[in-house]
Amino acid sequence: MGIRKSDNERKSDEAIPVAEESVPARVFVHHLESIDLVSELTKLLHRAFKKVPGQPYTYPAAEQNEKTTREQIERGECWVAVLDERVVGLGIVWPPKMTNHHLWHRPRRVAHLRQIAVEPDFQGMGIGKMLLEVCEQGALQMDATELAGSSPVGARQRSFYAQRGYRTVRYVSWSNTSYDSVVFAKHLGELGRPNSLWLGVEKIRCYFSLVQYKLRTWVCRTIVTML
Fold first, then answer.
1. Phi/psi class of residue 209: alpha, beta or left (left: φ > 0; alpha: ψ in -120 to 50)?
2. Pairing state of beta strands 146-152 and 167-172?
């Protein structure tokens, strides 16, 4: 299947079982070594992010082609959740970039949580939680001090990440989406913890981005009402 064993697997010659009790004991998370599963993973993304009742957003992942999936995997690291030889989830992390150094905090290396997806029939079983934990460990191995991602402002993913220690960083409008997004991030390990002054500056920036988001939303609604 083109799956590379992790260091723990090499020691015990066993895959890493998902610890969450609500997840079937047969689910394992593996590192994806080759890209021979691109077609299967692309279809998984289409199913996981398609529009359904309760999910009104048009995610780029719901329509992306195999070339895009391949590029996303090759740019970083990919892990897959496997159940009885069937891939039921995936996570992709891109290597960190060094942010500007300021006097009030140490340099930050922020890895990008590019994708986490779970087959619709297996959502709510804890597979996403395990994939996220593996992605965080992978980001640490990339020497990242933080892991950051984004989701639509009103999406249910926000509570999923908030419950796992991710804080809201700012509100943005990506050029390739039709919705406003919120960027979230989490400090990884002791080296990733900033001081209180830096956190204060981040909160101020987040507040201003929220004001801009609210103002932009109000303007758009006003224009629509006038038409």
1. alpha
2. unpaired
Q: Which residue has the tokens 């758009």?
A: 220
Neighbours of 184 (CB within 10 A): 23
Q: What percent of the chain has pLDDT over 70?
A: 74
Instruction: Print burial letters for 126-146: b (CB count within 10 Å at least 16), e (below 16).
Output: bbbbbbbbbbbebbbebebbb
Which residue reads 């002054």 in tokens? 197
Q: How far apart are alpha carbons 43 and 82 in whole angstroms?
A: 15
pLDDT in tens, 166-223: 999 888 888 888 788 899 999 997 765 666 666 676 777 776 677 776 776 766 667 7
